[in-house]
Amino acid sequence: MATIHDVAKAAGVSAMTVSNVLNDRPHVRAETREKVLRAIAELDYRVNPAARRLRSSRTGTIGLAVPDIAQPYFGVLASHVVEAAGRRGLRVTVEQTSAARDRELEAVALSRRLMIDGLILSALGVSVDDLRAIDYPLVLVGEKDLADELPQVSMPNEEGARAAVAHLLATGSRRIAVLGGIVEDGGMASERLAGYRRAHGDAGLVPDPALAVPAERYGIEGGATAAAELLRRGAPFDGVFCMTDAVALGALHALIGAGLRVPEDVQLVGFDDVPAARYANPAISTVSPDHEFIAETAVVLLERRIAGEQLPAPRRTVSPFSLALRGTTRRA
Amino acid sequence: MATIHDVAKAAGVSAMTVSNVLNDRPHVRAETREKVLRAIAELDYRVNPAARRLRSSRTGTIGLAVPDIAQPYFGVLASHVVEAAGRRGLRVTVEQTSAARDRELEAVALSRRLMIDGLILSALGVSVDDLRAIDYPLVLVGEKDLADELPQVSMPNEEGARAAVAHLLATGSRRIAVLGGIVEDGGMASERLAGYRRAHGDAGLVPDPALAVPAERYGIEGGATAAAELLRRGAPFDGVFCMTDAVALGALHALIGAGLRVPEDVQLVGFDDVPAARYANPAISTVSPDHEFIAETAVVLLERRIAGEQLPAPRRTVSPFSLALRGTTRRA
DNA sequence: CACCTCTCTTGTATCGGTAAAAATCATCAT
DNA sequence: ATGATGATTTTTACCGATACAAGAGAGGTG
């Protein structure tokens, strides 16, 4: 495979000039550039990222660390990130963290040494303290609010949850369960829960704590389990707000399995708008954030940080959203 | 960040000896190894993959090229590949090809230059001819049968489809539609279709061609569209074999939306066993290949190829499978 | 015409590892 | 004691790119 020196020889210039052309540096005569480009095309030359990285940093690869790429939401996110990065000539390496703090930290630590220029981290386990010291291009997506310290693109957690629950209330539900939150310090769940509470507050209602059922994970299994637990408790309910669509999918399955009619007996809404939600039976109504916006914004922010730019406050960007009303809710 | 030379100095040996320790090469005295390891730990030294790659190839990163990681099956596959690779100290870079031949070829071509030691390719678009000349560690997964040329880990396409359709026949279906195949040269669809035909043949039946509805993609949308088309045709049917679970999810939605009862009026089976299938309503019966086996095998094969080993024939490894019988089929 | 400036181009050193060959050392047979 | 043998370690060079500093031309100026 051709090296920069082969190109230089073919074009009758020095390797450095080829490098200058490759990196769009000024002070290269148009005619020289032409010659070089022709030689590059002729030899089908590609830069060797290892060599470039060794000398200058910059590999053209970014990292994406998510809890589990098999989960629909992260698959969708990853897909958009890969595409957005691709449009900018970047490739993406995926890490899976299982939402565990140490694995998230490991991903961050490794990145510094890895062939990676920066990292997009879907942070669930780490805390602000863990990340404060990181001197490394890092952009957070979704989940926890750590935006005081680092640039972050997040979901419209509170606002979206509020809108969803408000819709349930507007269509007649009065006892609305909330499923799937591991409610803790400033996490996604607590923000969505805040939206749930605010919707109630706005309507002059106070939700029954017996209707809040946490779940280990935000996955389908967790949703099914949480719904089963809700049924077991025996507290009456006529609406369910699920922290994620995956939870909603599992919960819907469990509720229908228990003989409840959705949406006649129980309305249900999810959050995330993954493809499967649209094709559930009935189709799941959900908060639909703009996944492409999130991915695109995260990549752009990361690119700017890699370029050394200090991002101006406010550092938190919230995705726009819409309410996708489908078969698990009644018409207003 | 510490370099190999810092470690060498700290341990009082040469850089080369440190390198020998790092790479588990023979002829290093136990005592020396100790000293070096202590120095490594003390300085928290990590090899710089760029430098290693530049000199010797080997980056510790492999590529995974799939059509679209947002599709549940590929998300599951990617998740297992990332884990299997992680167990061996390898990282994974994901490419998306949209199942397009040129993007698949691009992924292969790039790999050679990328910071990647080898590539696992989920080939849909490329042909044997495209890949014949590739002199590069490459392992194929699923889909097309190209195993004459390259090592491949594939789904139990024909056998699984046969078993699934045989079950439909055994439980009373007589007019079984097949949804979602882009039937072409030796592709996955034609293998699964062969299984469908063989099940019919074994039962002394001949399937009605009017019941075969192709689909552009194997996604959820494609399944919904294909099912709609099937209904439009008006040919009676009492069973549906879907090429993938994604197709099954979409089809199930469309069929139920049209007022059919599943499984009473129509039985339905999918293929892949993605998580969402289990939690559909009713839960989708499906052919369940061993995803972990596929990922693990692909990574192991790739690792051996990277090590320079010539893999012995037979080069095609087929995943074991089971039939996951759930709510969309009747009891035998 | 000498001298300066500005643009364009090129040597040289270097990033952090590893391959290959050479050097050192301990052990042992002669 | 001498050379041979094999184990262990070091020296040297280089992978392919880029940073930096310095060189070469072209045009302008006094």
Automatic annotation (TrEMBL), chains A, B:
Gene3D superfamilies: 3.40.50.2300, lambda repressor-like DNA-binding domains. CDD domains: HTH_LacI, PBP1_LacI_sugar_binding-like. Pfam families: LacI, Peripla_BP_3. Residues 2-56 form the HTH lacI-type domain. InterPro entries: HTH_LacI (IPR000843), LacI/GalR-like_sensor (IPR046335), Lambda_DNA-bd_dom_sf (IPR010982), Peripla_BP_I (IPR028082). SMART domains: HTH_LACI. PROSITE patterns: HTH_LACI_1, HTH_LACI_2. Keywords: DNA-binding, Transcription, Transcription regulation. PANTHER family: HTH-TYPE TRANSCRIPTIONAL REGULATOR GALS, LACI-RELATED TRANSCRIPTIONAL REPRESSOR. This is LacI family DNA-binding transcriptional regulator. It comes from Microbacterium gilvum.
